UniProtKB/TrEMBL annotation:
InterPro entries: AfsR-DnrI-RedD_regulator (IPR051677), BTAD (IPR005158), OmpR/PhoB-type_DNA-bd (IPR001867), Sig_transdc_resp-reg_C-effctor (IPR016032), TPR-like_helical_dom_sf (IPR011990), WH-like_DNA-bd_sf (IPR036388). SUPFAM superfamilies: C-terminal effector domain of the bipartite response regulators, TPR-like. Gene3D superfamilies: Tetratricopeptide repeat domain, Winged helix-like DNA-binding domain superfamily/Winged helix DNA-binding domain. It holds the Pfam family Trans_reg_C. This is Transcriptional regulator. GO terms for biological process: phosphorelay signal transduction system; regulation of DNA-templated transcription. Residues 1-100 bind DNA. The lineage of its organism: Bacteria, Bacillati, Actinomycetota, Actinomycetes, Kitasatosporales. It comes from the Bacteria. Belongs to the AfsR/DnrI/RedD regulatory family.
Length: 280
């Protein structure tokens, strides 16, 4: 089986895609997928399904959802529900676990590619870094778990995944700018700065790409748009890095060397910044 969470939720077997249609059933499956190989405690599942107001029948309803998921896995794999309960969706003390051996998950491949890309950049292999990071980002089919109703636990994981996506993109753009690929990054940066109006790193990269593409006026407009959003929303001025970029654009300085995400020296970045889920 193949599972996907980097976009709409899916389960795929032999090229055929399926997934439960009931919203709460999708929630339970998504919770199990983003914690593949870990026991997901019953209280966490209950809280994600009903927040702090579960029905009296909540535990029984959850058990029904687990049974329905086992029936779904049985239907697509040809295994009996007992075999599914033993090898795929397993009951453990206090909760349930989706076995890591149950199938491949796009999130796991994404993490491996991001790690490989970062390591390539650290050792100075820009070509490999661009290849791996670009391949990782191409795995995204839309916002993480976009079609799954999320409670507090699942929403925290979803936001973590979205942050990891932005971090990986910043790393990729950093090296592409260093390689002179200014125009190639403009379209994506234009979209992402609109979607993330307070993100200084993305705005700085957009400013620098515009400046090096000979579009100083637009680079200054990006700065003023960011500054306006920060001042109006948070009462803050842009940070030192963006301020230095602003001065470089004003002075038509193309020799300035900004540091956005990563240089050639080793950079210590926690795995959690790239979507690594911590155990409960």
């Amino acid at each position: 089986m193949e599972f996907g969470v980097l976009g709409p939720l899916y389960v795929q077997v032999d090229g055929e895609t399926t997934a439960p249609s009931a919203p709460k059933l999708r929630n339970v499956l998504a919770m199990l997928l983003v914690h593949t190989g870990q026991v997901v405690p019953v209280p966490s599942l209950v809280r994600d399904l009903w927040d702090d107001d579960p029905p009296v029948s909540g535990l029984t309803t959850l058990q029904t959802y687990i049974l329905n998921l086992r029936k779904m896995f049985s239907a697509v794999t040809g295994l009996t529900t007992d075999e599914v309960a033993r090898d795929i969706l397993v009951t453990r003390a206090g909760g349930y676990v989706l076995a890591a051996e149950a199938g491949t998950l796009d999130l796991h491949r994404y993490r491996r590619l991001v790690t490989a890309g970062r390591e390539a950049l650290v050792r100075g292999d820009d070509a490999a870094g661009v290849r791996d990071l670009n391949e990782a980002l191409l795995m995204w089919r839309g916002p993480a778990l976009v079609d799954v109703p999320a409670g507090r636990v699942l929403e925290s994981r979803r936001r973590q995944l979205e942050e990891s996506r932005l971090a990986a993109f910043e790393y990729l753009v950093d090296v592409e700018l260093r390689l002179g690929m200014y125009r190639e990054v403009l379209a994506e940066l234009a979209a992402l700065t609109v979607e993330n109006p307070l993100h200084e790193g993305l705005h700085g990269q957009y400013m620098w790409a515009l400046h090096l593409s000979g579009r100083r006026a637009q680079a200054l407009q990006v700065f003023h748009r960011l500054r306006g959003a920060l001042v109006a929303g948070l009462g803050l001025e842009p940070g030192p890095q963006v301020q230095r970029l602003h001065r470089a654009v004003l002075n038509a300085d193309t020799d300035f060397e900004p540091r956005f995400a990563v240089g050639r020296a080793p950079v210590a970045v926690p795995a959690s910044a790239f979507g690594g889920a911590r155990p409960y």
